[in-house]
Amino acid sequence: MTTPLSKVDQDFSPELKKLAVEVARHIKTEQDLTALSRQLLKLTVESALKAELDAHLGYERHAAVGRGSGNSRNGYSGKTLKGDLGEVPIQTPSTPKG
User: Fold this and answer.
1) DSSP readout, the chain?
2) Is residue 64 domain-resident?
3) What sign for the dihedral angle of Cα 30, 32, 35, 41?
4) Are 90 and 78 in contact (CB under 8 A)?
5) Are 42 and 91 in contact (CB under 8 A)?
6) Mean pLDDT of all residues in the chain?
7) Would residue 6 count as lying in a domain?
8) Domain-located, residue 55
9) Domain enclosing residue 39, as ranges
10) Which parts of the sequence are annotated with region: Disordered (predicted)?
11) pLDDT of 22
């Protein structure tokens, strides 16, 4: 029995399939696949963290509304994800109030 695709999976499926076909042309070895998986993990997690911070603060990066708020973006800090793909360094956005 297969699990039905979620709304997100359905919405992005054609775009992701097209991208996957293009990227797959450059994968020749298991190491290539692992490197791609690590890059995708890094990009996905960093993008999700940035979106989460936008939602938390209530405005997007560089928006004028955040100036002088006392809790605007304050750079990035390095973290390391540890999992099946080994250690993947990422940059997490930060704010003065955490």
Assistant:
1) -PPPPPHHHHHHHHHHHHHHHHHHTT--SHHHHHHHHHHHHHHHHHHHHHHHHHHHHTS-TT-GGGTTSS-----EEEEEEEETTEEEEEEEE--TT-
2) yes
3) negative
4) yes
5) no
6) 84
7) no
8) yes
9) 11-93
10) 65-98
11) 92
Structure tokens at 31: 């190491």
Residue labelled with tokens 């890059």:
39
Q: How many domains does the chain have?
A: 1
Q: Which pLDDT band holds residue 88 (cuts at 50, 70, 90)?
A: very high
- What pTM was estimated for this model as a whole? 0.74
Q: Residue 11: pLDDT above 70?
A: no
Q: Which residue has the tokens 């919405």?
A: 11
Instruction: Let me know if residue 60 belongs to a domain.
Output: yes
Would you tell me how many other CB atoms lie within 10 Å of the CB of residue 88? Answer: 16
